[in-house]
Design brief:
TPR repeat, repeat, two-stranded antiparallel ribbon, NatA_aux_su, single chain, mainly alpha, TPR_rpt, disordered C terminus, globular, 913 residues, two-stranded antiparallel sheet
Length: 913
């Protein structure tokens, strides 16, 4: 580098490079200017100066200088390399790879460029090119361990596992017998474990086990070694020896559920569906009883409380009286001890038929016995007073899970009356009210719980979440700021990648019609996933250097399926369309473009709301400017070095620029493709695909989505609606004129007989058959009614009658209190919106609302008689009732759904103060 310069300037050029590597950018710029003063057209110096400026956030100047340097010296590998580094810093990896390849044409054996190229190829998953580059690096430096390992990993990623094993064996052949030295034992042991996992992956478990036993003295991670050994033994069918190894592992860690699962496999008693025959259940019961005698300190198998032996894992497979006996023995000591997570521990059992009823019966018996006698049945010793409290606590969560909110609230109120200083009680009551539909009171109770322990971040987060669900966004932000850095909630929460907050606030903004802010929140989550993908870049070299090879490969596999995570799915779906009761996002823009006459007419009734939102934004801007001025005048904004901390200014805080898109469907399609690629097994993905492609007039793609929906779940109401809508739309289209339209019609005619629901049937007949097959289902009837109206608008009364004739069935339970209704709150809200907005029958919607109040008296949406909104309006006639749980005064709500006002609670608060 810099070979074309005189000796003095060549030394200055080396100083530029060194200054760049040591981040002394001003020193490097000074040296570059000294060279350019004598040689203003020296290409490599111009490129290095541009690279230095890029690190100083002067990107436009950097690109200009680097391109000028490349123009002046096209045959310099340094200029091409620098150009690639510039692109790499901006995540333009494809362009960076092109620059690196051009540099290698000039200097094909440059190790630094080859190494940088291999990192980009790993990042972009160009596994073929990755193999070639790592092979070239190995040929140039065969005495470098990292090159051998990198070449093996490259073949592993290219699915050539056997070749990777050969490379590692060849590398071991270059080592001396006494290798490794003490300072490299950990790295070498990791490499050996990686090689053993490769042997197992490519189908040589015998060789893997032999290698494990042979190299055991050189492996430092003994626990992983033992786990790998038992896995190989089970795979080879050495079940008795495997069982002994699992028992040895359980002696080390008796709370590892994976070891119990492996032990069951050794005894032939493992089933992924958790379905066992009576003989298998007896054998499993005997196995865990024997284990319970050995591992007395294990919470997974048993808890030692006095002389009781209680089980947890057996509760998953025991049935009937055996389950009841084991459950009693498990629950009693935990209630006595006061374990708040008991219900969470047992909640998976509610998916097993009949077990929830047994739990309800036995806990009610415990409640009756403790409340009357002060002790458990068949016991002589008295229980502490707190036992009754935790019984109430468990029952409240139990009835909440079963949808019996009245009983759940009565139980939690009894618990609060018993001991009003337990924070968990208010959190659970808040959760019950949320499920019952009173979001405002739920937020209030969560805030009350937060105020009882201001140092608890979890309770603070739960309070924020409840406020966002109640659309109290401004208050939620004030609460969230209490646990953020420097009191700047927006930047801190975004920097911490707090995605649950952004998703919840985005959904809240969407409910309130603030689409700009909603999109901003959803797209912020998408940005986090892009950052997570980018963060893997530094690990490509780090993991090879530190030999954490198994973790590295697992990380790459995780990154490959990163966008299938539920948070990304929610964010992408929120940017396209929200679920059930939420409005559309990009799709809404397409249906009603901004400033269109249709939108003006539709929004005349919302003028007051818009003015209010405009005033609110203006006030927020003024407040923000005042805060910035106060920060600028205060000394708190100064660092120790005397430099002022300048917070980045958001150029679009309200997402207004996001709304100004010429083609919203193209934006929706971008996120839809990500969902189709990463969440193809989600029904919602194909529902979104159908809606987007129907609006884009992409008939074949919409038909593909319909076929996917029917293939996943043909009995789903949404699948049925999409099928009817599609063929109804196709049937109403004009006769095909162009060749493309004729081709589409021919494809649809050929494919329609493959849909069993439409074989030799009209759409009306198919709709009626769907009703006959699902007549007892509430949501299926609503779907049929909607399609009936879509096919023939004159049948609106018939469609409305079909919905109103639905009956809310009572699901019987063995419990003594209450019953479970089939209808769910969110389903009833969706049907109300269907009557109001689709069928456009306001009288029917009003009747439906009155009917639902009976079943959901706490719902603020239906203005139930026990909801906080109605109680506030009754107590204060001048107060305005918020619709749909809208933002209201966040103070403690004194109503039937608020917490019990209690002198003991006030005394407790005063004591803490």
């Amino acid at each position: 580098m810099g070979a074309s310069l005189p000796p003095k300037e060549a030394n200055l050029f080396k100083l530029i490079v060194k200054s760049y590597e040591t981040k002394q950018y001003k020193k490097g710029l000074k040296a570059a200017d000294a060279i350019l003063k004598k040689f203003p057209y020296h290409g490599e110096t111009l490129s290095m100066k541009g690279l230095t400026l890029n690190c100083m956030d002067r990107k436009s100047e950097a690109y200009e200088l680097v391109r000028l340097g490349l123009k002046n010296d096209l045959k310099s590998h340094v200029s091409w390399h620098v150009y690639g580094l510039l692109y790499r810093s901006d995540r333009e990896y494809k362009e960076a790879i092109k620059c690196y390849r051009n540099a290698l044409r000039i200097d094909p054996d440059n190790i630094e460029i080859l190494r940088d190229l291999s990192l980009l190829q790993a990042q972009m998953r160009d596994v073929t090119g990755f193999v070639e580059t790592r092979q070239q690096l190995l040929a140039l430096k065969p005495n470098h361990r990292m090159n051998w390992i990198g070449f093996a990993v490259a073949h592993h990623l290219c699915s050539n596992v056997a070749k990777a094993v050969e490379i590692l064996e060849a590398y071991e052949g270059t080592l001396e017998d006494d290798y490794p030295p003490d300072n490299e034992r950990c790295e070498h042991g990791e490499m050996l474990l990686y090689k053993i996992s490769l042997l197992e992956e490519c189908g040589f478990p015998e060789r893997a086990l032999e290698e494990l036993h042979k190299k055991d003295p050189k492996i430092v991670d003994k626990l992983t070694c033992k786990e790998q050994e038992v896995s190989l033994l089970v795979r080879l069918g050495h079940l008795e020896e495997g069982a002994n190894r699992y028992k040895a592992l359980l002696a080390m860690n008796p709370d590892n559920y994976g070891y119990y699962e492996g032990l069951q496999k050794c005894f032939g008693l493992y089933s992924e569906s958790s379905k066992y025959s009576s003989d298998e259940v007896d054998r499993l019961d005997a196995l865990y009883k024997s284990l319970a005698e050995q591992y007395t300190w294990s919470s997974a198998v048993k808890v030692a409380v006095l002389t009781s032996t209680v089980y947890r894992i057996p509760l998953d497979f025991l049935q009937g009286d055996k389950f009841r006996e084991a459950a009693v023995n498990y629950i009693r000591p935990l209630l006595t001890k006061g374990v708040p997570s008991l219900f969470s521990d047992l909640s998976p059992l509610y998916d097993h038929p009949g077990k929830a009823d047994i739990l309800e019966q036995l806990v009610l018996e415990l409640e009756h016995s403790v409340s009357t006698n002060g002790r458990y049945p068949d016991r002589t010793e008295k229980e502490p007073p707190s036992t009754l409290l935790w019984i109430f606590f468990f029952l409240a969560q139990h009835y909440d899970r079963r949808g019996q909110y009245d009983v759940a609230l009565s139980k939690i109120d009894e618990a609060i009356q018993h001991t009003p200083t337990v924070i968990n009680l208010y959190s659970v009551k808040s959760r019950i009210l949320k499920h019952a539909g009173d979001l405002v009171a739920a937020a209030s109770l969560a805030d009350e719980a937060r105020c009882m322990d201001l140092a608890d971040r979890y309770i603070n987060s739960e309070s924020v979440k409840r406020m966002l669900q109640a659309d109290q966004v401004a208050l939620a932000e004030k609460i969230a700021v209490l646990f953020t850095k420097d009191g700047d909630q927006h930047n801190s929460l975004h920097d911490m990648q707090c995605m649950w907050y952004e998703l919840a606030s985005g959904e809240s903004y969407l409910r309130q019609g603030d689409l700009g802010r909603a999109l901003k929140k959803f797209l912020a989550v998408e940005k986090h996933y892009a950052d997570i993908t980018e963060d893997q870049f530094d690990f490509h070299s780090y993991c090879l250097r530190k030999m954490t090879l198994r973790a590295y490969v697992d990380m790459l596999k995780f990154q490959d399926r990163l966008h299938s995570h539920v948070y990304f799915h929610q964010a992408a779906a929120g940017a396209i369309r929200t679920k059930i009761d939420l409005e559309r996002c990009y799709l809404k823009f397409y249906d009603s473009p901004l400033n269109s006459p249709t939108e003006v007419e539709d929004n005349t009734s919302k003028t007051a709301q818009k003015k209010k939102m405009k005033k609110q934004r203006k006030a927020e801007r003024a407040k923000k400017e005042a805060e910035e001025r106060s920060e600028g005048s205060s000394a708190s904004g100064m660092s120790k070095s005397g430099k002022r901390h300048i917070k980045p200014v958001d150029p679009d805080p309200y997402g207004e620029k996001l709304l100004k898109t010429d083609d919203p469907l193209s934006e929706a399609t971008k996120y839809l493709k990500l969902l189709q690629k990463n969440s193809p097994d989600s029904l919602e993905t194909h529902l979104l695909s159908f809606e987007v492609n129907m609006r884009k007039q992409k008939i074949l793609l919409a038909f593909q989505a319909v076929k996917k929906l029917l293939g996943f779940d043909a009995d789903n109401p949404d699948s049925h609606c999409c099928m009817i809508k599609f063929f109804h739309k196709v049937g109403s289209m004009p006769a095909p004129v162009t060749d493309a339209e004729k081709l589409v019609c021919s494809v649809l005619e050929a494919e329609r007989p493959s849909i069993s629901q439409l074989q030799e049937k009209t759409l009306s007949e198919a709709n009626q058959i769907f009703l006959d097959n699902h007549e007892d289902s509430f949501m299926h009837r609503a779907a049929v009614a909607e399609m009936l109206y879509s096919l023939d608008p004159t049948k609106k009364l018939e469609a409305v009658k079909l919905i109103e004739d639905s009956s809310n069935k009572v699901v019987p339970t063995n419990g003594a209190l209450g019953s479970v209704m089939e209808w769910k709150l969110m389903d009833c809200i969706a049907v109300h919106k269907l009557l109001e907005n689709v069928l456009i029958d306001h009288d029917a919607a009003s009747r439906w609302k009155v009917r639902c109040v009976e079943y959901f008296p706490y719902s603020t949406y239906f203005e139930g008689s026990r909801s906080s909104a109605v109680n506030n309006s009754l107590n204060n006639p001048d107060a305005k009732t918020p619709l749909n749980g809208g933002a209201s005064n966040p103070g403690i709500i004194q109503s039937a759904s608020s917490s019990t006002s209690n002198g003991k609670l006030e005394a407790f608060k005063n004591l803490r103060i």
